[in-house]
Amino acid sequence: MSKGERISQLVEQMGGKKSSGPALALVDHPYYRAFFQCWNEQRYYEAHDVLEQVWLTTASEDGDFFKGLIQGAGAFVHLQKNYEHPSHPKHGRRLRPAARLFRLSEKYLTPYAPVRHAFDVAGFLVLLQTHRQKIVESDFVMNPWTPEGAPKLELRAN
Question: Is the dihedral of CA 84, 88, 90, 93 positive or negative?
């Protein structure tokens, strides 16, 4: 099974339908919605994967918007792995890469603030900046992420 097929199957299991027909508004795209569902379930790696499929297969002016969300999810993958395995040789060193991904995500998303495709980009930027600052101010030793305090993302109602 290819990565694309695996992701398509995941999205379908989450209740998303395959999109076909005329251009679908991004806010209604099942993969876009699956990104937020995966995020809220603390499945950051899967969130990254489903949105990457939209970015790679959609001709859109939103390439940097997708990259920013993908980089943000990637940063949280690092935090989650670090939290789960702090003494592991690889996972114990994930705070610096997380901070770099937070900065990249901020760079890509800033032009889309305050809101893009029913998503509060400005609020997400604050979340990214806050987490990055906590890591940097701790000299890369304190992970601000916990499962209990994991941030939730929501789309605004139309």
Answer: positive
Distance CA 23, CA 81 (A): 37
pLDDT band at 158, cuts 50/70/90? low
DSSP letter assigned to residue 8: H
What letter would DSSP give residue 93? G
pTM, two decimal places:
0.89
End-to-end CA distance of the chain: 36
Tell me the C-alpha distance between 76 and 131, whole Å: 10
Amino acid at 75: A
What is the Cα–Cα distance from 28 to 86, expressed in whole angstroms? 38
- Dump pLDDT digits (tens) for 9-22: 777 777 765 554 44
The residues pairing with 119 across neighbouring beta strands, listed in sequence order, are 116, 155
